[in-house]
């Protein structure tokens, strides 16, 4: 057994049965291709590497063969590799160019096929196989009018442009995680396609003084995972994120809030088909924030006041809302009763009940509560996200 077979589908089967032809070009970002290939395989894909001469100078073909279990195409031969792998829509499911240099992008847009990758691109664009490119270049190169025009040409032909992410004159190629999510989005079921979904997550942080906060242990993992999974299922996703310890992927649009008051001030922009609210929000805030730092070493008393409940305000802006109800030490039946009470009080689509012990953990046991049913959803938070979105897809 080749080592690549040992990791097949060990993360998910969402790319199972899919073949991805990976075009590797001469950017230093090509060093990420080993990791990219392995991650695609871990989600079930078969990967066929194709390399330009410039890419071969940066990464060894043997390394790509070890990663994929397939000998890379480094030159066109009498085997007509371009026709063999991409000559018919049934041959491959996606032609992905990562990293895509300005040189390769421009050749693709102008029908020039003088490398194995550009020859593959010419065939894929002609045969109707889905194509995606992840541009990798300096920000000034990305801003070159010719490069901008050529990317526009490719986009007009239906080519999916993945990244890059710009910061002043710096342009970062899309991460491996982002490219894998795009592959899943393009190749797996898109039952949430064009649905506008807002996820509100993370923890609120109510200031006591200029340094201290009233907050909680929520990491924001549930919200980030829900947003990423919804993106992969075709939704137009937006994430509103409070505090947390989990990085938000670059490809998920995010707005930030700190306090419950901040979040309430954002609600006027809700215009979505669905809002999911796994956020851990404070119930109380100080009557008055202390300026500076509260002195230590002596007793201190502070009055708290309740903050407005956010769920009914969200429900007033959107017809379909899924809330969360976190409790501690309750039996299953009591937890369901609490969640259903919240669902009925605020007229929610559903309410996810969970124990507070799940905060910050990668897996959990939760209950998806509707008016008529209470379904246990257990496993990783990624798996739980999929179960929640399965429910959503049946009702939107």
Report on the architecture of this protein.
- With about 400 residues, the chain is of the alpha/beta class.
- It has two domains: about 5-185, 3-Layer(aba) Sandwich (Rossmann fold), CATH 3.40.50.1950; about 195-285 and about 300-395, Rossmann fold.
- The protein has 15 helices and 19 strands.
- The longest helix has 15 residues, at about 330-345.
- The protein is elongated, with a radius of gyration of 24 Å.
- GO terms for molecular function: FMN binding; metal ion binding; phosphopantothenate--cysteine ligase activity; phosphopantothenoylcysteine decarboxylase activity.
- In the N-terminal section; belongs to the HFCD (homo-oligomeric flavin containing Cys decarboxylase) superfamily. In the C-terminal section; belongs to the PPC synthetase family.
- Pathway: Cofactor biosynthesis; coenzyme A biosynthesis.
């Amino acid at each position: 057994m080749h080592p690549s077979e040992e990791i097949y589908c060990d993360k998910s089967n969402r790319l199972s049965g899919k073949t991805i032809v990976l075009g590797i070009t001469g950017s230093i970002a090509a060093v990420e291709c080993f990791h990219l290939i392995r991650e695609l395989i871990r989600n079930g894909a078969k990967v066929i590497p194709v390399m330009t001469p410039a890419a071969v100078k940066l990464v060894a073909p043997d390394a790509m063969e070890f990663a994929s279990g397939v000998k890379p195409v480094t030159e066109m031969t009498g085997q007509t590799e371009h026709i063999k792998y991409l000559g018919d829509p049934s041959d491959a499911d996606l032609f992905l160019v990562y990293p895509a240099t300005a040189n390769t992008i421009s050749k693709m847009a102008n029908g020039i096929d003088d490398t194995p990758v550009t020859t593959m691109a010419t065939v894929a664009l002609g045969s109707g196989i889905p194509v995606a490119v992840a541009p990798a270049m300096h920000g000034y190169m990305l801003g070159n009018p010719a490069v901008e025009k050529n990317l526009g040409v490719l986009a007009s032909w239906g080519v999916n442009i993945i990244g890059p992410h710009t910061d002043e004159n710096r342009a970062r190629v899309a991460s491996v995680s982002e490219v894998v999510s795009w592959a899943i989005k393009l190749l797996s079921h898109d039952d949430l396609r064009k649905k506008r979904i807002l996820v509100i997550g993370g923890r609120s942080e109510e200031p006591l003084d200029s340094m201290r906060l009233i907050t909680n242990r929520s990491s924001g993992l549930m919200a980030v995972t829900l947003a990423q999974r919804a993106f992969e299922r075709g939704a137009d996703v937006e994430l509103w994120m409070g505090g947390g310890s989990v990085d938000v992927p670059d490809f998920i649009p995010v707005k930030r809030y700190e306090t419950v008051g901040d979040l309430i001030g954002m609600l006027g922009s809700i215009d979505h088909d669905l809002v999911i609210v796994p956020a851990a929000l404070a119930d109380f805030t100080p009557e008055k924030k202390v300026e500076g730092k509260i002195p230590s070493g002596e007793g201190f008393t502070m009055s708290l006041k309740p903050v407005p409940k956010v769920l009914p305000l969200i429900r007033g802006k959107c017809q379909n809302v899924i809330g969360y109800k976190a409790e501690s030490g309750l039996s299953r039946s009591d937890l369901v009763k609490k969640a259903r009470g919240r669902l009925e009080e605020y007229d929610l689509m559903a309410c996810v009940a969970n124990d507070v012990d799940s905060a910050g953990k990668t897996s959990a046991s939760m209950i998806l509560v509707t008016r008529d049913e209470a379904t246990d959803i257990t496993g990783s938070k990624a798996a739980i996200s999929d179960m929640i979105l399965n429910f959503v897809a049946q009702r939107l």
